[in-house]
């Protein structure tokens, strides 16, 4: 019995040493030897009992010498910088259709009324004491257009005839308040060519204040 225990302890010690060494080993317990001085006499019970074999199997431990490769994390700084969005275009104000148009009515003018315009060529001193001047003198009914009023005349198609000053009058204007007479110099044919035209008379907005 004592020998059997020693054998089992030896096997366990060998198994432990094999585990520490990282290997494996199969160990079987040897049958109990008979003592030299003991007669080879077996009882019926010991002869009938089977011999038990104790086996030990050592499994090698997994090796972890090599570490698993770890994929490096994406570096956001290494990524290509996104393209900059184009700067918004500055809003451009729509061009004024009347800018640079000589026939455009200025904002500081207002329509007085529509008149029939004739032409005359009699040269001399006007009703206000001025001298008749082309591009300046206009004969009017002073009850409708006071003397000294600065007026702008536009044809029906929007063409600017010119600007004049109310500084003369005549029998036709006194009889027909909405008739005006434009001084066009000494050329009679020029007056005939003009004839009679309908014009819009504009004055400055603060002229009546």
Overall description:
The chain is an alpha+beta fold and 209 residues long. It is 18% helix and 23% strand. It has four helices and eight strands; from the N terminus they run H-E-H-E-E-E-E-E-H-E-H-E. The chain has helices at 2-21, 44-48, 171-175, 188-194, and strands spanning 26-28, 55-57, 109-120, 137-139, 150-155, 160-168, 179-183, 197-204. Strands 3-7-4-6-5-8 form a six-stranded mixed barrel. A hairpin with a 4-residue loop joins strand 5 and strand 6. It is rod-shaped, with a radius of gyration of 65 Å. The N and C termini lie far apart (143 Å).
Determine the number of helices (DSSP H or I, runs of at least 4 residues). Answer: 4
Spans where pLDDT lies below 50 across 5 or more residues: 23-30, 43-49
Largest sheet geometry: 6 strands, mixed, barrel
SSE sequence, one letter per element? HEHEEEEEHEHE
Percent range of helical residues: 10-25%
Structure summary, number of beta strands: 8
Mean pLDDT equals 75
């Amino acid at each position: 019995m004592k020998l059997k225990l020693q054998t089992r302890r030896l096997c366990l010690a060998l198994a432990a040493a094999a585990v520490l060494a990282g290997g494996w080993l199969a160990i079987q317990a040897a049958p109990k030897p008979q003592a030299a001085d003991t007669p080879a006499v077996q009882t019926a019970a010991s002869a009938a009992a089977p011999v038990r074999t104790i086996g030990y199997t050592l499994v090698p431990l997994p090796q972890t010498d090599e570490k698993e490769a770890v994929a490096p994390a994406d570096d956001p700084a290494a990524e290509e910088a996104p393209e900059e969005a184009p700067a918004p275009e500055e809003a451009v104000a729509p061009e004024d259709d009347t800018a640079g148009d000589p026939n455009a009515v200025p904002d500081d003018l207002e329509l007085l009324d529509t008149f029939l315009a004739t032409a005359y060529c009699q040269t001399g001193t006007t009703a206000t004491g001025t001298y008749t001047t082309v591009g300046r003198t206009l004969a009017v009914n002073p009850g409708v257009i006071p003397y000294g009023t600065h007026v702008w005349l536009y044809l029906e198609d929007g063409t600017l005839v010119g600007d004049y000053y109310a500084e003369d009058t005549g029998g036709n204007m006194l009889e027909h308040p909405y008739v005006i007479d434009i001084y066009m110099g000494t050329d009679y044919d020029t007056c005939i060519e003009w004839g009679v035209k309908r014009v819009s008379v504009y004055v400055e907005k603060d002229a009546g204040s």
